[in-house]
Amino acid sequence: MPDLPTPALHEWNLMPEAAIALQKRLAPKIQREDRLGEVSTIAGMDIGFEDGGEITRAALILLEWPSLTLVEQIVHREPTRMPYVPGLLSFREIPAALGAFSRLSRWPDLIMIDGQGIAHPRRLGIASHLGLWLDLPTIGVGKSRLCGRFGDVPEEKGHWTPLTDRRRPEDPADIGIVEGDRVTIGAVLRSRENVKPLFISGGHRVSLETAVDWVTACLGKTKLPEPTRLADRLASRRGEVRESGRLPL
DNA sequence: GCGACAG
DNA sequence: ATCTTGTCGC
After folding, report:
1. Which of A214-223 are b and which e, b meaning 16 or more Cβ less than 10 Å from the residue's Cβ?
2. Through-space separation of residue A87 CA and nucleotide C6 C1' in angstroms
3. Which NCBIfam families does this entry report, sorted A to Z (predicted)?
4. Rounded to an integer, what is the distance from CA A128 to the centroid of its chain?
5. For A86-114, how does the pLDDT look when each residue is reduced to its tens digit (9 = 90+)?
């Protein structure tokens, strides 16, 4: 049984200025180099809402690697405590996510989260924040852009273009490839043809290249990688997810 | 000052 | 995110 610090209200229910200050203090702690062990399980995390937003619903999926077989699925519901504010998403969704993780029978070796990693104004998106809290390798798998610019994305599945942003004063020198006053913070990946691309970024303890590799390796026939796809389904729709294993390539 | 803005 | 019907395409 994993044991994790209980999220105290005062640590998450912060005023915007305090939350931003905390992000700036935590961002330097993010590990951008690969620090993953052997991967035998991968988790997928996503959040949904009920009652017009009154209830937060955290969905956690645990898959076995490389079969991508479902080994555990958890749904955790609790009252919503923060409104959605661009850039402060983690404060709204992480408490519920931790509730789901506390019910997991064992820690995953890698986690994919619906949202950004360091591709964030202060380089601390929800995937990074959660990874730091759990001290586990995380990858951000966003369905849309929060910040940064990118050029045309190749049409071929698996190809991508860098997501770059203006370098911020507090950005560490090794945050990514630096070109002039810009830095690469993520990858805009064509996970599937004829569909809008995915925004991949390292969360914690995972480099961008490795993040893209893992997401690509978990792609099936759909736009989202299996971990996130299943968590997504569990977070929104009712009922459970039944899965028998990896889809044919 | 005017947009943009993860889920 | 969520509210919502049918519809086009592989």
Report:
1. bbbebbbeeb
2. 35
3. PRK11617.1 (NF008629)
4. 7
5. 999 999 999 999 999 999 999 999 999 99
Nucleotide nearest to A52 (CA to C1'): C2
Q: Over the range A17-52, which residues count as b (16 or more CB within 10 Å of their CB) and which as e? A: eebbebbeebbeebbbeeeeeeeebbbbbbbbbeee
Would the Cβ of A133 be found within 7 angstroms of any atom in strand C? no
* pLDDT surpassing 80 at residue A246: no
Please name each of the domains of chain A with its CATH number: 29-236 (3.30.2170.10)
Between A6 and A204, the more confident residue is A204
- Tokens describing residue A200: 């991949």
- Which residues neighbour A209 within 8 Å (Cβ) at sequence distance 6 or greater? none
Please indicate if the annotation marks A46 as binding a ligand.
Answer: yes
Give the pLDDT confidence of A61-78 residue by residue, as tens digits: 999 999 999 999 999 999
pLDDT digit string (tens) for A152-168?
A: 999 999 999 999 999 99
In terms of Cβ atoms closer than 10 Å to its own Cβ (0-12, 13-18, 19+), residue A74 is: buried
Q: Is the CB of A95 under 7 A from strand C?
A: no
CB of A98 nearer than 7 A to strand C:
no
Beta pairing, strands A198-204 & A55-64: unpaired
User: What is d(CA A123, CA A121) in angstroms, rounded to the nearest whole number?
Assistant: 6
